[in-house]
Write a structure and sequence with these properties.
The protein is of the alpha/beta class. It has one domain: Rossmann fold. It contains 9 helices and 5 strands; from the N terminus they run βαβαααβαβαααβα. It has helices at about 15-25, 30-40, 45-55, 60-70, 90-105, 115-135, 145-160, 160-170, 180-190; strands at about 1-5, 30, 80-85, 110-115, 170-175. It has a 5-stranded parallel beta sheet with strand order 2-3-1-4-5, with helices on both faces. Helix 2 crosses helix 3 (about 45-55), helix 4 (about 60-70) packs parallel to helix 5 and helix 6 runs antiparallel to helix 7. The longest helix has 17 residues, at about 115-135. It binds adenosine monophosphate. Adenosine monophosphate binds next to helix 2 and helix 3.
Length: about 190
């Protein structure tokens, strides 16, 4: 199964992807996780990406397209995959279409988790305040101000990706504000 999960940061893509990994035995391809690993390892890509990630902006298309192209070549991605956080621009979506076409592969589903952005901001502010109160570190890109920048990047560059797939007739939209179990059930229903 080849699936894309779309939606703004904080919409629950990672949570749903992790569950689908267990259920279908296919890998979650999260460009955010891969970039964070590159930053932690201090690779040249990590060094380039760190500042823009910390500020909440988008890493360049060339870098993330390269990362995904390499990742799709790994043996575990042959059975299928769940893309989480990619594509984030139309250029990335076009590059993915080309990569899949070259391999003779098709997407089974593109699912957008539709959310109320103000409620997401409220949720992130509460999470950050709770973490602070508990003396725990707040992930830098979950800092409320950075989070707002990430939402801005989503609205500017990524919101157009769902209509891109809608035109191709592969998009399903779901209410991502529902409880996790209900969102899970709705996704399972779409995937049949
Ligand atoms: P995420 O965990 O998916 O929210 O990603 C964390 C950060 O990594 C984002 O705020 C971006 O800076 C960067 N990033 C992840 N995926 C992409 C992508 N597909 N295109 C550009 N930047 C990305």
């Amino acid at each position: 199964m080849r699936l894309i999960l779309l939606g703004p940061p904080g919409a629950g893509k990672g949570t749903q992807a992790a569950r689908l990994v267990e259920k279908h035995g296919i890998p979650q391809l999260s460009t955010g996780d891969m970039l964070r690993a590159a930053v932690a390892a201090g690779t040249p890509i990590g060094l380039k990406a760190k500042e823009v990630m910390d500020s909440g902006g988008l890493v360049s298309d060339d870098i993330v397209i390269g990362i995904i192209a390499d990742r799709l070549e790994q043996p575990d991605a042959k059975k299928g995959f769940i893309l989480d956080g990619f594509p984030r621009t139309v250029a990335q979506a076009d590059a993915l279409s080309t990569m899949l076409a070259e391999k003779g592969l098709k997407l089974d589903a593109v699912i957008e988790l539709v959310v109320d952005q103000q409620k997401l901001v409220d949720r992130i502010m509460k999470r950050a305040a709770d973490a602070k109160a508990a003396g725990q570190p707040v992930r830098k890109d979950d800092d409320p101000e950075v989070f707002k920048t990430r939402l801005g990047a989503y609205n500017r560059d990524t919101a157009v990706v769902a209509p891109y797939y809608e035109k191709k007739g592969t998009l399903a939209r779901l209410d991502g504000m529902k409880p996790i179990g209900e969102v899970s059930a709705a996704i399972d229903h779409i995937l049949g």
